[in-house]
Amino acid sequence: MSFTLRPWSPDDLPSLIQSANNPAIAGFMNDQFPHPYTEETGRNFIQMASQANPVHIFAIEVDGRAVGGIGIHPGSNIERKNAEMGYWLAEHFWGRGIITEAVKQLVAYGFQTFDINRIFARPFGTNLASQRVLEKAGFVLEARFEKTFFKNGEYLDELVYAVRRSA
């Protein structure tokens, strides 16, 4: 399925709310991604994502609508050569290979744009689909920390997947 990564726009607010307001998505995200996903939350997110230069948080557009998001967040201080990646997609589009390809595109963009040598993602141990996405995109499991995340009243394993810049 065809998609485009592009900067977020205020015009994306209705499709952002429609796509993001899903407990099945929020259940695999950190608590900054709330459920319900309100208009105020969406407006604040778009404003924050639009301010970065260079852009590092993108909308995933399918058929002219923002149906997901993906971002790369470079570290600072002693972690400055690393960047964390996060992503989500409207449930209707799951299982179509969109996120795997979006991750590959963002990895290429990240290494081209930022002075980093490693990109990592931290899916929950229960998020098997995200683990498969990362593996298909060339990420390697570096670590598993037992019961370090606390989400919806339960402790979850934290996995660390990473890909490194080619020499």
TrEMBL record:
SUPFAM superfamilies: Acyl-CoA N-acyltransferases (Nat). GO terms for molecular function: acyltransferase activity, transferring groups other than amino-acyl groups. Keywords: Transferase. Residues 3-166 form the N-acetyltransferase domain. PROSITE patterns: GNAT (PS51186). This is Protein N-acetyltransferase, RimJ/RimL family. It comes from Hymenobacter gelipurpurascens. The lineage of its organism: Bacteria, Pseudomonadati, Bacteroidota, Cytophagia, Cytophagales.
